[in-house]
Design brief:
The protein has 255 residues and is α/β, with parallel strands linked by helices. The protein has a single domain, classed as 3-Layer(aba) Sandwich (Rossmann fold), CATH 3.40.50.300. Helix content is 29%, strand content 27%. Strand 7, helix 6 and strand 8 form a beta-alpha-beta unit. Helix 4 packs across helix 5. The longest helix has 18 residues. The protein is globular. The site of adenosine-5'-triphosphate has 12 residues, from strand 2 and helix 1. Adenosine-5'-triphosphate binds next to strand 2 and helix 1. This is ATP-binding cassette domain-containing protein. Keywords: ATP-binding, Nucleotide-binding. GO terms for molecular function: ATP binding.
C-alpha cells in the first residue's frame, strides 16, 4: 500500500517569502486494510500529508510509494489515472461536491474518468450512497439543498464509489451537529471493522479516533508518535508485519 520515506514539503510563505516546512522527513507505512487517524495541532501538516498521499501535490523531497508507484516522480498523466482509479478523496466540508448536480449525479460523476456505461455509473452510485446511509428519496435532490451532514455523506459516497484501494479524509466530522457526526463516525467504523478498507483520516474528533486501528501524531511536520489500538488486529492476516513504523513509537494504547 503506502510507503513514505523522508517526505518533506516546503512552501514559500506568502507573508514574508520565507520557507515553510509543512512536512519534515515523514516516514510511514500504511498496509492494506489499515486505518490510520492523523492528529496534531493546527499547522502540524495534516492536510499537506493528505494532499501528498492523494497525489494532489508532490513532495519537495522523499518518496510516496503507493502500490509500487512513486507518486513523487510518476508522470502527471499516470498520476491522474491513479487518483481516478485508486484513491478516494473526501476533503471533509462537502464543499468539494461539484455544483449544480443531484446527489446521484454527483456520485456517479466520479466514475466518468473510468469510462463506465452511464447505467453502471448510476447503479454503483446508488449502491455507494446506500452504503453510507443516504436515503433513496434524496438521490434526485440537488446537493446544495442537503444539510451539512448529508453533504458530508455524499462526499464520502463520491470518494468510495470507485472502490478505491485507499480513502483519504480531512476532518470529516468537523463542524457537524452531534447526530450528523455520529452518522459519519458510523461509516468509518464500518469501513474499518467490516470492509477493512485502508483509510487515512485527519481528525480531532475523539469519537472517530476511537475506532481507528492506528493513530499517528504530527507535530511541526514530523511524526512524533504511532500507536495501535488495543485489540485492533493486524491489517493483513498473513504473516506479514501489519506496520513498520519508521518514526516514532508504535506503542499499544489503552481504549
Ligand atoms: N499552499 C501553501 N502555501 C504556503 N504555506 C502553506 C501552504 N499549505 C500549507 N502551508 C503551511 O504549511 C503548514 C502546515 O499546514 P497544514 O494545512 O498542512 O496543517 P494542518 O495540520 O492541516 O493544520 P489545520 O489543522 O489548521 O488545517 C502551515 O504552516 C501552513 O501555513
Amino acid at each position: 500500500m503506502y510507503h513514505l520515506d523522508g517526505v518533506t514539503k516546503c512552501y514559500r510563505s506568502a507573508r514574508d517569502g520565507g520557507v515553510v516546512r509543512a512536512l519534515d522527513g515523514v516516514g510511514l507505512f500504511v498496509e492494506d486494510g489499515d486505518g490510520l487517524v492523523v492528529r496534531g495541532p493546527a499547522g502540524a501538516g495534516k492536510s499537506t500529508l493528505l494532499r501528498i498521499l492523494g497525489g494532489l501535490e508532490r513532495p519537495t523531497r522523499g518518496s510516496v510509494v503507493l502500490n509500487g508507484t512513486d507518486l513523487a516522480t510518476v508522470t502527471e498523466c499516470r498520476l491522474a489515472r491513479i487518483r481516478a482509479e485508486s484513491v478516494g478523496i473526501a476533503l471533509g466540508t462537502g464543499g468539494d461536491l461539484p455544483p449544480g448536480l443531484t446527489v446521484r449525479q454527483s456520485v456517479a460523476g466520479a466514475l466518468v474518468p473510468l469510462g463506465l456505461r452511464p447505467a453502471d455509473c448510476r447503479e454503483l452510485a446508488d449502491r455507494a450512497l446506500a452504503e453510507v446511509g443516504v436515503p433513496d428519496e434524496q438521490l434526485t435532490w440537488p446537493t446544495h439543498e442537503l444539510d451539512a451532514g448529508s453533504q458530508r455523506l455524499v462526499a464520502l459516497a463520491r470518494a468510495l464509489v470507485k472502490r478505491p484501494s485507499v480513502l483519504l479524509a480531512d476532518q470529516p466530522t468537523a463542524g457537524l451537529p452531534a447526530g450528523a457526526r455520529a452518522c459519519v463516525v458510523a461509516v468509518f467504523a464500518r469501513l474499518w471493522s467490516e470492509r477493512r478498507l485502508s483509510c487515512v483520516v485527519a481528525t480531532e474528533d475523539d469519537a472517530l479516533a476511537r475506532h481507528a486501528p492506528r493513530l499517528a501524531t504530527l507535530s511541526r511536520g514530523r511524526v512524533t508518535a504511532l500507536t495501535r489500538r488495543r485489540g485492533a488486529g493486524p491489517a493483513v492476516p498473513s504473516g506479514r508485519p501489519a506496520t513498520r513504523p519508521v518514526q516514532g513509537r508504535d506503542d499499544r494504547r489503552d481504549e
